[in-house]
Amino acid sequence: MSVSLSSTRPVRRWRLGYRISPVGAVAFLVILAWAVVAVTAPLIAPHPVGEIVDFDFFQPMSAAYPMGTDYLGRDVLSRILFGARYTVGISLASVALACLTGVTLGMAAAVIGGAFEAALSRFLDALISIPSKIMALVLVAAIGSSMPVLILTLAVIYTPGSYRFARALAVNVNAMDYVTVARVRGERLGYLIRAEILPGIVGPVLADLGLRFVFIVLLLSSMSFLGLGVQPPNADWGALVKENIGGLSLAAPAVIFPSLAIASLTISVNLLIDNLPQKIRDRSADA
Amino acid sequence: MNSLILRMIAGRIVVTLMTLLIVAIVIFCATTLLPGDVVQILLGQSATPEAVAGLRQAMHLDQPAALRFLLWLKNLATGDLGVSYVNGIPVAELIGNRLANSLKLAGVTAALSVPVALTLGITAAILRGTLVDRLVAVVTIAVISVPEFMVATLAVIVFAVTLGWLPALSMTGDVTTLAGLIKAFAMPVITLSFVISAQMIRMTRAAVIETLSAPYVEMALLKGASRRRMVLHHALPNALGPIVNAVALSLSYLLGGVIIVETIFNYPGIAKLMLDAVATRDLPLIQGCAMIFCFAYLLLITIADIVTIVSNPRLRHA
């Protein structure tokens, strides 16, 4: 689901030799900002995350509380800043795990081939045909939703897609002469996938990682919104929407701002990947 | 229809059935991962060992997992989805009504969004590169990039809070009068329509644009046909296959969206049932609902693939 807005935007040549569009640069800055917030949340949050700052709940925006107060009268801004840790942290851990497993298996399947590749592909393709939310519901029902379990669950759900993508790319690289030479030289599997295949597919794989990160943020938010993701007293952005959903009929900022936080992150990642230099993005659209 | 097409379709259906089997194995394994003894949980701490052993035997839990899986599969094939752990009612009975409700919701959504999405998608393709096309692109990207619950909350804020046209929560009022029925369905349908239309518009636009790049369309252009005639008379009939494919794939997004929408609007459908089952860890009910969702999903993507096979002109005269 790579997203294309327009390819005729003015572009600038940077020293690296990559073309970087302004939209991509802005998107990158938004992502960077959220990453910084996730790390420094305790330093920049105006109030402690659990502190009830006002007895009036669902307050509108004000100078004291820029994003209003939530259903218990807590500062929404502080809670969103802390929520970034869970949303960004969990998603990042899951996507790293999913892509590490998926890409390694994909490259291994391409190099080994034969029955191993066929069986693995058939099995993982079947996993893709389980809707992600259903899979998440089944796994959470079976093993609960503590933080490590949540990360593993999300990783398991998005590994098959990553595998399929990496395998399709690796099969092409595998047919190259230099890989054949390395194989004839008697190199082992580990060396083949690390030193011969990986450098040839790393760009598209990273772009795919970004897209998968968006899917994971969306699924994590949805799970938390359903009450099956991050559990109280911790709250990611999805959980913030859930706990303040009572303020919906008042159009309280406590419901709107966590949603906007999610949107700003996911849209930025999509736009960044879309505006990546063609060199990196090459072939990342067709999977 | 020739034998090659029939063989390809048959092959595709075999793949679907194999996939369904693997999916069943995965769901069965996942739901039996549950740490702790189901029987102990069901009967509570004070259960006598005899009662535990008795129930375990009655539930076939004393048999190996592979055997239990085959038994479950056999029952599944005959429509017996087991009995709910929580209230002892057969799962098929619990699901029946709820499934009908969800299908109604899905049907209304599809009937509303398919024509709108196709029109917008084809218009965007005709007007490629114009302001309209850009606007459609930006809106659809935005809808795709945000979670479904955000679309739902925005819809509530716009239609219920700001405009005051509709009630914020569904299924609270009566559904006997037409007005009441429309009010109950409106918010869920609006939300779901946005979610699947965004996908459908993008895929339709892509399908039409791809057809427009074919040589025969260029021929039509050179012969002096207007852009409108070129699209509607020359490109569209050939883009029909990819478009139907896009519609079937987009409808599969209903499955994910329906979980959020039924929860937020308190709609008594199968997704809400499954969610409640997750909360009470009612495993037979979860298994039943999950299999229905997976089956529906597989059905839609299989239809999409078969349409692609049938509409491929290269296969027609092979």
From TrEMBL, chain A:
Pfam families listed in its UniProt record: BPD_transp_1
User: From which residue to which does the signal peptide run?
Assistant: none
Q: Which domain of life is it from?
A: Bacteria
Major localisation: membrane
Q: Name the residues that span the membrane.
A: 20-45, 86-113, 134-159, 205-230, 250-273
Reply yes or no: does the keyword rRNA processing apply.
Answer: no
Query: Could you tell me where this protein is found in the cell?
Result: Cell membrane
One GO biological process term = transmembrane transport
Q: Does the keyword ATP-binding apply?
A: no
What positions does the domain ABC transmembrane type-1 occupy? 84-273
Q: Which UniProt keywords apply?
A: Cell membrane, DNA-directed RNA polymerase, Membrane, Transcription, Transmembrane, Transmembrane helix, Transport
The record's listing under InterPro entries reads: BP-dependent_transpt_permease, MetI-like, MetI-like_sf
- Any one GO CC term of the record: plasma membrane
- Which Gene3D superfamilies is this protein grouped with? MetI-like
The family assignment reads: Belongs to the binding-protein-dependent transport system permease family.
What is the official name of this protein in its record? DNA-directed RNA polymerase subunit alpha
Provenance organism: Methylobacterium tarhaniae
TrEMBL record, chain B:
Task: Share an example GO biological-process annotation for this protein.
Answer: transmembrane transport
Q: Any idea which UniProt keywords this protein has?
A: Cell membrane, Membrane, Transmembrane, Transmembrane helix, Transport
Q: Boundaries of each ABC transmembrane type-1 domain copy?
A: 99-304
Under the heading CDD domains, the entry gives: TM_PBP2
The organism sits in which domain of life? Bacteria
The primary location reported for this protein is membrane
Transmembrane intervals? 12-34, 105-127, 139-166, 178-196, 239-265, 285-310
Pfam families reported in the protein's UniProt record: BPD_transp_1, BPD_transp_1_N
Protein name per Swiss-Prot or TrEMBL: ABC transporter permease
Naturally occurring in which organism (per UniProt): Methylobacterium tarhaniae
